[in-house]
Amino acid sequence: MIPVVKSLSVERALSPSADKFLVKKPTQEQAEEAVRTLILWAGDDPSREGLTETPQRVAKAYKEFYKGYDEDPEVILDRVFEEVDGYRDMVLVRDIPFYSHCEHHMVPFVGKAHIGYYPSEGVVGLSKLARIVDVYARRLQTQESMTAQIAQVIEAALKPRGVAVLIEAEHMCMSMRGVQKQGSSTMTTQYTGLFKDPAEQVRFFTMVKSPGL
Ligand SMILES: Nc1nc2c(ncn2[C@@H]2O[C@H](COP(=O)(O)OP(=O)(O)OP(=O)(O)O)[C@@H](O)[C@H]2O)c(=O)[nH]1
Ligand SMILES: [Zn+2]
């Protein structure tokens, strides 16, 4: 859940999934000023030559890192293909790479998502599953909420007989700072419908980890 930013006036929805948390978006100038403050906080001089254009670049990069706030996953999953000649077995898209930022430190966590589902009324374009991963990855959240949100939106849009989402990632907040445990990875899973059955979970996991192309 995204907390209300009380110091900002109620004006603009932060994201489609957070309609009730309305905040005013700062101007480009305000964003750049905030970056200058952080450069000072780091101990450097924002007016030295190498750093003068940095605030502008960081503000631009943030637009890319967090563009998921401007995207609606339900629109992405809008198109369902019903003609699949009776295909009913699992559809699995695995090894979808993503870059995200944890909401606790705003430091990257990087990994792969695997999404499986059993179709009922139709199938969705395969690329759309990867796009859904990016929508949530490009917002601030925890790995757990990202996993749950991906499963929920597929469930709502496709009404499949079951959805399985597995995410594995390395959190830079655990490797480059804090506890400093390089190479540890975190796995999260969310299962609905048929995937509540442990045998289905084993099948999903076996397919995810089977040798690739
Ligand atoms: N559950 C969960 N925790 C996360 C995620 N990303 C970062 N964290 C953790 O968030 C926690 C924040 O803990 P705090 O004690 O409030 O902050 P901190 O002092 O910076 O913690 P340390 O990382 O232990 O130095 C840390 O344990 C992080 O490892 C995530 O996606 N899911
Ligand atoms: Zn973190």
Automatic annotation (TrEMBL):
Its EC number is 3.5.4.16. Zn(2+) binds at residues 102, 105, 173. The keyword Nucleotide-binding applies. Pathway: Cofactor biosynthesis; 7,8-dihydroneopterin triphosphate biosynthesis; 7,8-dihydroneopterin triphosphate from GTP: step 1/1. GO terms for biological process: one-carbon metabolic process; tetrahydrobiopterin biosynthetic process; tetrahydrofolate biosynthetic process. GO terms for cellular component: cytoplasm. It catalyses: GTP + H2O = 7,8-dihydroneopterin 3'-triphosphate + formate + H(+). It comes from the Bacteria. Residues 32-208 form the GTP cyclohydrolase I domain. GO terms for molecular function: GTP binding; GTP cyclohydrolase I activity; zinc ion binding. Keywords: GTP-binding, Hydrolase, Metal-binding, Nucleotide-binding, One-carbon metabolism, Zinc. Pfam families: GTP_cyclohydroI. Belongs to the GTP cyclohydrolase I family. PANTHER family: GTP CYCLOHYDROLASE 1, GTP CYCLOHYDROLASE I. HAMAP family: FolE. Homopolymer. Toroid-shaped homodecamer, composed of two pentamers of five dimers. This is GTP cyclohydrolase 1. It comes from Bosea lathyri. The lineage of its organism: Bacteria, Pseudomonadati, Pseudomonadota, Alphaproteobacteria, Hyphomicrobiales.
